[in-house]
Fold:
Amino acid sequence: MARGNSHLPSIWLADFASKAEFDALASELGTQLEVIAEIDDRMLQSRHPFDIKAWCAACNAVTTMRITWHYCGTDGTGSVHPAWTETCACNQCGLNSRMRALVDFLFSKLNVPRSARIYMAEQTTVSYTAVQKLFDQVIGSEYLGPDYRPGEVAAEFKHHTQIRHEDLSRLSFADGSFDIVLTQDVFEHIPDYQKTFSESARVLKRGGELVFTVPFFYDLEQTRVRATVDAQGAVAHILPPEFHGNPVSNEGSLCFQNFGWDLLDAVCSAGFTQPKAHMYWGPWAGHIGFPFFVMSAHKG
Ligand SMILES: [Zn+2]
Structure:
């Protein structure tokens, strides 16, 4: 089916290869950024959850999306705002803003064909279900724990069936197996993330793309390490522990680092080229709040 968004504006505002590039644009935009803040502000009709109509890149249709106040926070001025990346979930497919941005990126920026071979480091999520409907060759996995072998499929795991186990630092796939590797908010939970970038590069074919999201701290040049782990697996906390939701664990996942712009250098060190932070915004497609990014890097 033809993609249905051709008459709506693109949500992709700009691409950045460094903090200097981002800062230059931010200062150039100046008061124009206040227009975005104003529009975002006017969207907030209620202190209760509410629906908006917007175009969903995964459903390829206009749907209703639900804005809630889960994980909301206050900014420097004391104003309250939703956790925009985590909300505005499509009532049809369930994908929130950052998940839909990733799908939009695959179509709008990469023109990924339906036949592409895609590895996705999740398998029990609404995103996996959506991506699997959109492409013919999608392999998903979860990290099930140290008792599983990479590539092993668990017949049953915590109410899920046929779940493949993979460890992103030692994937079971052969070199050059995929056109696209996708991860969403995973790398911040892996202390040796450099190793996972190298493994992602290994399993991608030449010309392939790593596409991912992480909580990104665009004001940081250097990544802020929150916790480390030693060879025996003992965790040392440098900053107060921060846990994020994990689809296969009730305890959540510890966040080891808050990524800054040197993330793009780390991706390059793993053998990728052209690493970029792609900034998106567009209320017509349910992307509110600013600035948020999808990252990509090319396997040359
Ligand atoms: Zn949808």
Notes: The chain has one domain: 12-298. The two ends are 31 Å apart (CA to CA).
